[in-house]
Amino acid sequence: MPKIKLTTPLNDETVENLRIGQKVLLNGVLYTGRDAAHKKMIELLDQGKPLPFEIKGQVIYYVGPSPAKPGQIIGSAGPTTSGRMDAYAPRLIALGLKGMIGKGKRSPDVVRAIRQYKSVYFAAVGGAAALISRSIKKCRVIAYPELGPEAVYELCVENFPVIVANDTLGGDLYEEGVKIYATK
Amino acid sequence: MARLCIEANYYLGSDVIRAFERSREEESSLTGRDILKQLLLNAKIAADDRVPMCQDTGFAVVFLDLGQGVRIEGGSLYDAVNEGVRKGYTEGFLRKSIVGHPLKRINTGDNTPAVIHTRVVPGDSLKITVAPKGGGSENMSAIRMLKPAEGLDGVKKFVLETVKTAGPNPCPPIVVGVGIGGTFEKCALLAKEALIRELGRPSPLPEIAALEKDLLDEINSLGIGPQGLGGRTTALAVHIEIYPCHIASLPVAVNINCHAARHKEAVL
User: How many structural domains is chain B composed of?
Assistant: First the structure.
């Protein structure tokens, strides 16, 4: 299967054309965020304050990188378990978040929001952190430096490898893929 | 200590690499084969560049096998272990993933304290095993106090149910550590000890080795596959440790490890 090259920010039309199982190479800017940063971002929204970055069209990568060694742009940076962000994600999707990158299944609420507001969930290979780091070309902290690895980073990526796991038609690769290979 | 923390995170064991290679041959899913290829490449990059194979460099779980003839002088052994963890995680550029209070959740900043299990054994040496344990797979682990009447079938059912519920979250292909017997806490510790056995080395007890093989086959029929995206290779191995238990009890614990099945040992 040929890989699809996409550049962020993403629009409705681009994500509507994606289907589960497709391999995608992402280019452009990604924002990072884990549980602690998501909690803070939702608190900002509750207070009517702006988020640390304009969320429309953007993609959030669920990651907490290891520290960079001298000479490195970023440490190892593989995906974390997305389910921990499920409580926060639908609200961000409704505000225009067009993509999320992580590992593991999403909740029915997130799957519904992906469909309703046209977004996409990409799976990255969990544990392939040293390999993934090679596609990250720039990295800077833009919010919550006190959270250390859980801070919000702005990453510039080139050909960042992901697989479409949930699409705008309601498709779920975690369900479909397992059905194909289950023999009992 | 510091060296063991760093090496465990940079260099994936040859037993795990061999298991990846074998699984890639046997995997029927193209995506699954591609993922296994990426994991082999990732292990090579981590070793060549001396960087962590995974950004989650884990909770430092430390087993101390302390010979009863050994006398520790010059301070607390546990302080020394924590000092080693502090040094290793700082100098090795490993991620600091520990919060000092489970509810207040402030990062301790140096990955201490370690979780230390001490076993007193015959002899005059101290064996240190460092097994950094990732949070994603630890979160999918489970323990249950079965009724003795549930027997072998109950044990198998619980292990399969735990792996199925875990699905993609613990980063399959996983290693499944199972404890059967003991008390509540002993059973959980048996499951953890099962994870530090050399990958794929069967239990010395024939009936337990047969159960390990049986469970591995059943787990690899679930279809979860590499990263949970479908395929044959859900688990690389099932290791079981057992212990006598109370006439009223049949405890079973399942401790799941991601494919970064890390542990390094040294004998002093």
Answer: 1
Global ipTM: 0.91
Instruction: Please check whether residue B147 lies inside any domain of the structure.
Output: yes
For A53-72, what is each residue's pLDDT tens digit? 999 999 999 999 999 999 99
pLDDT in tens, B221-231: 999 999 999 99
Q: Please write down the long-range contacts of B15-21, taking CB distance under 8 Å and 24 or more positions apart.
A: B15/B198, B15/B199, B15/B200, B16/B43, B16/B199, B16/B236, B16/B259, B16/B260, B16/B261, B17/B43, B18/B199, B19/B173, B19/B199, B19/B200, B19/B236, B19/B237, B20/B173, B20/B236, B20/B259
Task: Kindly report the pTM of this predicted structure.
Answer: 0.93
Identify the CATH class of A4-183. Answer: alpha beta
B109 in A contact zone (CB under 8 Å): yes
Q: Please tell me whether the peptide bond between A9 and the residue prior to it is cis, using omega within 30 degrees of 0.
A: yes
Q: Find chain B residues with C-beta within 8 A of A103's C-beta.
A: 136, 168-169, 171, 227-228
